[in-house]
Specification:
The complex is a heterodimer of chains A (about 325) and B (about 350). With about 325 residues, chain A is an all-alpha fold. Chain A is about 70% helix and about 0% strand. Chain B has a 6-stranded mixed β-sheet, with helices on both faces. Chain B has a 5-stranded antiparallel β-sheet with strand order 13-12-11-14-20. Chain B has a 5-stranded antiparallel β-sheet with strand order 15-19-16-17-18, with no helix packed on it. In chain B, β17 and β18 form a beta hairpin. In chain B, α2 runs parallel beside α4 and α3 crosses α4. The relative contact order of chain B is 0.11. Classes of the chains: A mainly alpha (about 325), B alpha+beta (about 350). At the A-B interface, α9 and α10 of A face β6 and α2 of B. Chain B: Pfam families: ABC_tran, TOBE_2.
Chain lengths: ~325, ~350
């Protein structure tokens, strides 16, 4: 009884009284706007948040991309039109990044264009393989699920520092190689091995997340469908290609979209692990945008804004294609 | 010949023994129904025959050959699952042909078989649809069609009608029976519904806790249940049971006495029973005679169910033992009435203290 009284008191204080207080305001609003426009009044708080924190920055970004100088305040920035875009696209030959005025942009773009497909393919392939293994009746299944998910909970910086400790010249891996009588390798000094480890570390760090989603997808496939396939003389490969993959398609599509977006956004792990090096071998587009806008003096906000808008445009096109492909993909 | 022989077949899941050594012979072309309450091991037995479960011990022989170590697909059996287990992303045609493609059957032969099965089951116009676009009954047909195209020696049905509504269930029951007549294959059908068992089977196998309680033709089981379990399980509504004792054994027969009821003489050969033996008398609801003159057992009516063509009188003896009486046609008996009833001569079943049938020579 006392709890009920407290609750009703709290309800009166927190909801009923304020509601009564703003009732005249709402009535006034309804009189002025008419009942058809009233939903907008209720939508306003959320709309305001979206406009202010998501849409407004996009427009600010567009504004910055069309203005020059290293000044931060909009009023101080002179209008330069498409000059920033022209700078980015200023190249002797588009086949050779070194002829471009902003060659690092093109190298970062090129790296990203190689990094994303390789990393996404490796990520989904390994996550799918892991999920299929973890979906079987194996001993210590819960333990292994935990192990594979563990890196997802780590901060990106911790991931990068851990692997740096393993991969550096006097690191754990080389220590192991030396102990085995093999020649140590300077893993992060050579472009190809640095690129390989960039993919490896990011896959290691994020794979658990996608494995869990795929595992949930696998578990939603009914067991008796597999039994029917067994009675239907399907060999394991046919079961995988004709039953598992098609029935996992909706899940795979979600994983693919999430994976591509995350892959394009890759920044913190590599920034700490390789710093984009050696040279520019592992610099990706987001790191380029960060460096040009905030790290390298003078700060070129305009160019960074232009590059990020180009990236946004590419992601938008990609997402639209995905949404088109994802339409009408349900079997039940 | 595709007869099936199970020999000392047993199955355990860990420490739990589900089927403790079972022997059974099923003849070629028979329609056999495994029936029993939930958890009696009937589905496990079917899955052992299908090859979806591995037997712990014993042997399974199909047409004389041991298949115990033969993979499911090569045993010459096809299964219709309770959930249908259709491939949701494939069309009906692909569902029917998937198994045939897997064994690399020539394309024209696959097409011929699919068309033939579709025609037989009247699903020709559904061939290009996906399972989600079909009704429950249509999915059921597709599942049966998938089994037919494989032309198996033995069909296995795992409670295939349990997901259908009552009306459709009656319809499909008849269709499966007709299908059996047309194809002539051996069919094994699992159900917990004893009406399905009674109406469809050539032979019923009653299972309890993985043990066969009785095997026989439906009416044989109905008329001569071997023990209390079968007597109670086969027949709907179920048989009435009265506990009591044999008070006297004479040339005239056995005198049966249940508490608070007048003694009742079973005019039967004495058999192995002695006076004082504890017994259970079983009488089916339709095997009571209501007496007008006040002889027989006094039964108080608690509910009188009028089905129109039949009446079911839910009664109780003076000590509260429930007794159900079936009367053909419409009854004038109402709630609270006291009836006097006696088992009809020759239609009683006597079970000893261990629950086994006592032969009465009737």
């Amino acid at each position: 009884m006392r709890a009920a009284a407290t609750f009703s008191g709290a309800f009166t204080a927190l909801v009923a009284l304020p509601a009564r207080a703003i009732e005249p305001v709402m009535r006034g609003a309804q009189k002025i706007l008419g009942i058809k426009r009233m939903p907008w009044v209720f939508l306003f708080p959320n709309l305001a948040a979206v406009l202010f924190f998501s849409l407004l920055p996009v427009f600010i970004n567009i504004f910055y991309s069309a203005t020059g100088s290293d000044r931060l305040y909009p009023a101080d920035r002179p209008y330069v039109g498409a000059a920033n875009y022209e700078t980015l696209f200023e190249c002797g030959s588009y086949l050779d990044p070194s002829t471009c005025s902003r060659d690092l942009f093109w190298r970062a773009l090129g790296n990203t264009l190689i990094f994303v497909p390789v990393q996404v393919a490796a990520m989904i392939g390994i996550a799918l393989f892991t999920a299929i293994c973890l979906n079987r009746d194996i001993r210590g299944r819960g333990f292994f699920r935990g192990i594979f998910f563990f890196p997802v909970m780590l901060s990106p910086v911790v991931v990068a520092l851990t692997w740096q400790w393993i991969l550096q010249r006097n690191g754990a891996l080389n220590g192991l190689l030396t102990a085995l009588g093999l020649t140590p390798v300077n893993w992060l000094v050579f472009p190809n091995s640095a690129f390989f480890w960039s993919v490896f570390v990011t896959v290691w760090a994020h794979m658990g997340f996608f494995t869990i989603i795929l595992l949930a997808g696998l578990q939603s496939i009914p067991r008796d469908v597999y039994e029917a396939a067994k009675m239907d003389a399907a060999n394991p490969w046919r079961v995988f290609t004709r039953i598992t993959l098609p029935m996992l398609k909706p899940t795979l599509l979600v994983v693919f979209i999430l994976c591509v977006i995350r892959s394009v956004q890759t920044f913190d792990e590599l920034y700490v692990l390789t710093g984009g090096g050696p040279g520019s071998a592992t610099i990706l587009i987001v790191q380029y945008i960060y460096e040009i806008g905030f790290a390298i003096q003078p700060r070129n906000f305009g160019l960074a804004a232009a590059a990020s808008l180009l990236l946004g445009a590419v992601l938008l096109v990609f997402t639209l294609i995905q949404l088109r492909l994802a339409r009408g993909k349900s079997y039940d | 010949m595709a007869n099936l022989v199970l020999e000392k077949l047993s199955k355990s899941f860990g420490a739990v023994e589900v089927i403790p050594g079972l022997d059974l012979q099923i003849e070629d072309g028979e329609f056999v129904v495994f029936v029993g309450p939930s958890g009696c091991g009937k589905s496990t037995l079917l899955r052992l025959i299908a090859g979806l479960e591995e037997a712990t011990a014993g042997d399974i022989r199909i047409a004389g050959e041991s298949v115990i170590s033969v993979p499911a697909a090569d045993r010459g059996v096809a299964m219709v699952f309770q959930s249908y287990a259709l491939y949701p992303h494939m069309t009906v045609r692909q569902n029917l042909s998937f198994g045939l493609e897997n064994i690399r059957m020539p394309k024209d032969e696959i097409a011929r078989r699919v068309e033939a099965a579709a025609k037989m089951l009247q699903i020709e116009e559904l061939l290009e649809r996906r399972p989600k676009e079909l009704s429950g009954g249509q999915r059921q047909r597709v599942a049966i069609g998938r089994a037919i195209t494989r032309n198996p020696k033995i069909f296995l049905f795992d409670e295939p009608l349990s997901n259908l509504d009552a009306e459709l269930r009656v319809l499909m029951r008849v269709e499966i029976t007709k299908l059996h007549e047309r194809l002539g294959n051996t069919m094994i059908y699992v159900t917990h519904d004893q009406i399905e068992a009674m109406t469809m089977a050539d032979k019923i196998v009653v299972l309890r806790k993985g043990v066969i309680e009785q095997v026989g033709a439906p009416l044989e089981l109905y008329n001569h249940p071997r023990n209390l379990f079968v007597a109670g399980f086969i027949g709907s509504p179920r048989m009435n049971f009265l506990n009591g004792a044999i008070t006297r054994v004479s040339e005239a027969g056995l005198s049966f006495q249940s508490p608070h009821l007048p003694p009742f003489t079973l005019p039967a050969r004495p058999g192995p029973l002695r006076a004082g033996a504890t017994v259970t008398l079983g009488v089916r609801p339709e095997h009571f005679t209501l007496s007008e003159n006040g002889t027989g057992w006094p039964l108080t009516v608690s509910v009188s169910e009028q089905h129109g063509s039949n009446s079911y009188l839910h009664c109780a003896t003076p000590d509260g033992t429930p007794v159900l009486i079936h009367e053909a046609g419409q009854s004038r008996v109402a709630r609270g009435d006291v009836l006097h009833a006696e088992p009809r001569e020759g239609h009683w079943h006597l079970f000893d203290a261990a629950g086994l049938r006592v032969p009465l020579g009737n």
